[in-house]
Amino acid sequence: MSSSPTVQSRILVVDDELSVRELLSDALDAYGFAVRAAGSAAEAFGVVEEGGADLVLSDIDMPGENGIDLLRRIKEHSPDIDVIMVTGVVDVDTAVGTIRKGASDYVAKPFNIEEVRIVVERTLEKRRLIVENRAYQTRLEEMVVRRTRELEESYETTLQALVTALDYRDNETQGHSYRVVDYAVLVAERMGVGEPDLSWIRRGALLHDVGKIGVPDGILRKPGKLEPQEWVEMKKHPEIGHRMLEHIAHFRPSLDIVLCHQERWDGSGYPRGLEATEIPLGARIFAVVDTFDAMTSDRPYRKALPIEAARDEVRRCSGTQFDPKVAEAFLGIHSTVWTQIRERVRRNLEVHEAHLGSHERRS
Fold it and tell me: Distance between CA atoms of 131 and 110, rounded to whole angstroms?
């Protein structure tokens, strides 16, 4: 067993007999402990409340509040303070019973001082190991949180890279992915969607068109209307995107939007022809904001619609192309909010482009 501790452990000796208190106090002091003594349970609990004890060595049989009452009060107040019970030989069964009530150990009268020292040091060592284990667990949890955050950031960087690659490849959609993220989150919040689903919707909205990376340039960048066979190729992009990402666990909860964002409420969409609530909620929300952004953005073959005209179109298609409840939530958001989001995304992209240009010039 260890010798006197480097940092003195504070022992509180509790006994209504002065001679016993003095004997135990002197002996423990000689072993290097900081010792205080109390002649009653009430006095002892006062010391505990002051934070003046790491371990309590208490007699069971005391007038008034006894040692078992003190044990209960200490454990309710400070569960981590160890209590060793002192008992007469005839009360050993009682002492054993106190362990079930939270006592760490017991010693029997007439006691051997060396035995008391062993029990005290054993109890303190056990407490030290418990404290160290808790500290280790805390450090481990902090390390896991930090590593998880690093992985999150790595995944988000990958996500941003995928979307940026798509935006550079498909000039028509520059800014589109970022706008629909804000649009989708806004509508989802209005419908009462909370975390973590909100984050899955955010990621799915950002990734929704990533499958277009697998669509030939001649189709993706064609300035006019697509031919029927070209549409067949274009309609493959939800499944291409889903296959690209399905093995990345971090993105898996977001893939409903990637796969189902072209489904329609009436079942006439693609790729699986889902209808109504067969379509995941995130994809139903995204369908509205995706169409709205397409209508309010310039294309080589047509000019953007005014926001109010696009809102009217959403209203008209409620119940056919769009989930009526999602359309209602979307229409409940004032037109100026959409304008503000578009302007914010535009400014952010300009800053990003300026930063890239500056980096290229330095290179």
Answer: 32
Q: Where are the domains of the chain?
A: 10-138, 170-362
Q: Give residue 185's identity as a one-letter amino acid code.
A: V
- Determine whether 357 is exposed, middle or buried from the number of CB atoms within 10 Å of its CB (0-12, 13-18, 19+): exposed
| 22-56: burial string, b at 16+ Cβ within 10 Å, e else | ebbbebbeebebbbbbbebbeebbebbeeeebbbb
Domain 170-362: which CATH number of 1.10.443.10, 1.20.140.10, 3.40.30.10, 1.10.3210.10: 1.10.3210.10
Q: Any idea which residue has 């953007």 for tokens?
A: 304
**Tokens standing for 105?**
């150990």
Q: Band of the pLDDT at 361, cuts 50, 70, 90?
A: low
First to last CA, the chain: 66
- The band of 4, judged by pLDDT with boundaries at 50, 70 and 90, is very low
